[in-house]
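Checklist before submission:
- one chain only
- standard amino acids only
- sequence pasted in full

Submission:
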Amino acid sequence: MKTFKFISYLFYRYYSTGGTKDIPYFSTLCALVGIAMLHILQILAIFNGMDLLPASGAAPGTARLIKYFEWALLTAPLFLLFFLLIKKDELQSMHYDESKIKRGYIYLIIYIVLSFAFLMFLALLKKGKLG
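Returned file contents:
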């Protein structure tokens, strides 16, 4: 849980500047949901469960809106879970050494890139493009 809170702090600190400085807490929760969804997709790809997800691909008009609604229903429980686990006041009161923050950002970027690369590898493997 300590590492999870530190990752949340890193996102909160990042989103506290620039164009998202007015909504860093919401942006942090969305980033955490995005990472969680990345891992859920990896698990589904490993166990051939991709058909459990809302259908993908371009759809005209109302069908596309329904797909967005299905994805919102899929991610809403994760958003609520992170909302309950991570308090805004707690993020605002956290402080770490600058060296630890810099290392944390580097490790977080590497982790996200490798996780995404692993998902792409799984997708290519399951489609038969690698073997």
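Reviewer check: The CA atoms of residues 34 and 95 lie 24 Å apart.
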